[in-house]
Amino acid sequence: MKALREGPTLKKTVWDGEVAAHKMSKERELASLMKMTEKEYQAELALLQKETALQGQKPAAIQEINNKIEQPEAAHQLKMVKLDQDALAEETASWQRYFDVVTTSFNSQLRGMLTGTTNFQNAMKAIFTDILMKFVEVVENWRSNGRLASSPR
Which of 149, 140, 136, 76 is closest to 101 using CA atoms? Predict the structure, then answer.
């Protein structure tokens, strides 16, 4: 059980390095952490259930083990909620970066139209080009991170 509990911490350290080196996306890291957390919880739960079976029908011993099961369940639920929040925050940040590009492009072209350095047609062309390029970049990132192949969102 100790190895199962320490495993996610060690792997998270490795994955953080891979995210920093752009070898792994933050989304993939969070998904991997969720899988490891679930595996750790299931192993601990299985161990406690085996202990219950070994105790036979002694009500006091069974109640003690059931009390022990409640702690990992609560810890597991808390970890999963935290990982869900982290995944949602990362997804929100990803979309925010996309909309920042759109806003910046629009503002830049609007300034150009107001100062007379560009006309409406050229401004719209530039805005749509910037949006299309960012969209292609986002799709390419999703593809390279395996999100398009594994699960559509």
Answer: 136
Tokens of 21: 């080196």
Q: What is the reported pTM?
A: 0.51
Q: Which two tokens stand for residue 134?
A: 């960012």
Residue matched to tokens 């920093």: 20
- The two structure tokens encoding residue 131: 């949006």
Max CA pair span of the chain = 87
Amino acid type, 133? M
Q: What confidence tens digit (pLDDT) does each residue in 62-86 have?
A: 777 777 777 778 888 888 888 888 8
d(CA 20, CA 106): 31
Judged by DSSP in three states, 15 sits in helix
What pLDDT was estimated at residue 125?
92
Q: At what angle do helices 2-20 and 26-55 cross, to 10 degrees?
A: 180
Q: What ranges do the domains of the chain cover?
A: 2-145
